[in-house]
Design a protein that fits this description.
The chain is of the alpha+beta class. The chain has helices spanning 14-26, 66-79, 122-131, 143-152, and strands at residues 2-9, 31-36, 40-42, 53-62, 95-101, 106-107, 112-113, 136-137, 141-142, 158-160. Bound molecules: 7,8-dihydro-7,7-dimethyl-6-hydroxypterin.
Amino acid sequence: MRAYIGLGSNLADPIAQIQAALIALDQIPGTHCVRHSSLYRSAPLGSKDQPAYVNAVAALDTGLAALELLAELQAIEQRQGRVRGAERWGPRTLDLDLLLYGDTRCESEILSLPHPRLHERSFVLYPLYEIAPDIEVPGQGSVRELAERCCKQDTLSCERLT
Ligand code: ROI
């Protein structure tokens, strides 16, 4: 199954956090990181009183079920020092979001697919557009359309770093 992961960090050397997480994603059992985007610097969404974020998106090929993959993502967040339950919209050392898992659509308290806020976030859509412009986000249109729409609206700044 092809899955897409959104990565974000704004604490404790964010660039190093994202680079370490990209390596960790490739080491998940039964999983291979086939591509990842450049790193992007983005203005914080949520509380403005926090540092800028570094964001990226990775494409994985995985034999794991969606919930198994989610558990692996949470384990990587924990290992990289994430304090959960801190501030919902506040700063974090590492955030790994399961954005897409094939064409799966589901909604539960544990996991919603596609990620419910994917289509409105430039810091997700721009890196996703870089590596997979032509894929469909189930129920929402192509990444190309979503990224173009997001770009026209006055959204948060998000610029490519590397
Ligand atoms: N803002 C940006 N720019 N990037 C993120 O990854 C990010 N993650 C979050 C919140 C706090 C919503 N803001 C963000 O979880």
